Amino acid sequence: MIGKLTGRIDYKGSDHVMIDVRGVGYIVHVSERTLASLPPVGEVVALYTDLLVREDLMQLFGFTSLVEKEWHRLLMGVQGIGAKASLAILGTLGPEGVSRAIALGDQAAIKAAKGIGPKTAQRVVIELKDKAPAVMAMAGSLGETLEAEAEAVVEPAEPAPARPARSAKKPSGSAAAQSDALSALTNLGYAPSEAAAAVAEVAGELPEADAQSLIRAALRKLAPKG
């Protein structure tokens, strides 16, 4: 299993890139969002990958984070969702957007992806709603350091243009705050799916909020009405 690739981008297609890893070119299929986030041709890149093997086909799919890769794996397990549909959903919403949409049961957001009909969107939400809390927690606990790793692993090209040093990316503050809030609410006894939906809703309303603010707002959402 090929779990990660680090190399230089040889070229970019409409839905894939070729990455040169020490003289071997790997074609890696990616979502539109991931493709847009990659550096220019000739630059170093690192991607987490998932290898799809069939009788007559082998394809690599690339992701900029383990959270994106995990959602791809889960989406592929839903009836009617193949690799193309999964990348369409991730390309439209991004991994955090997928977490929020599924936690909130927002079928319309899933259906906004190209090629996704209402019945398929409904299956995605129903089958994966209980998975959202774990993936949201994963998002808060993982750092995004692929870019820094890539610079360290790949030898400079000859000749190598001078470039300013790049610092490692820090975990998303929003994702970390959501993870902390989710953990706190589940520790208080709320069901994971119920807590995830509340956290996702208030995170959408308060995108810059810290964990404590999210917890307070989510508790107000979860409070009995009447």
Q: Care to describe what's here?
A:
This is Holliday junction branch migration complex subunit RuvA. Residues 175-226 are annotated as: Domain III. Pfam families: HHH_5, RuvA_C, RuvA_N. It is found in: Cytoplasm. Residues 155-178 are annotated as: Disordered. The protein is of the alpha+beta class and 226 residues long. It folds into 3 domains: 4-64, Nucleic acid-binding proteins (OB fold (Dihydrolipoamide Acetyltransferase, E2P)); 66-135, DNA polymerase, domain 1 (Orthogonal Bundle); 137-141 and 170-220, Helicase, Ruva Protein, domain 3 (Orthogonal Bundle), CATH 1.10.8. The protein contains 10 helices and 5 strands; from the N terminus they run βββαββααααααααα. The chain has a 5-stranded mixed barrel with strand order 1-2-3-5-4. A hairpin with a 2-residue loop joins strand 4 and strand 5 (57-63). Helix 2 (66-76) crosses helix 3 (83-104), helix 6 (132-141) packs across helix 8 (173-187) and helix 6 (132-141) crosses helix 9 (192-205). 38% of the residues are buried.
CATH architecture of the largest domain: Orthogonal Bundle
Structurally, how many domains make up the residues?
A: 3
What class do helices, strands and sheet pairing give? alpha+beta
Most strands sheet: 5 strands, mixed, barrel
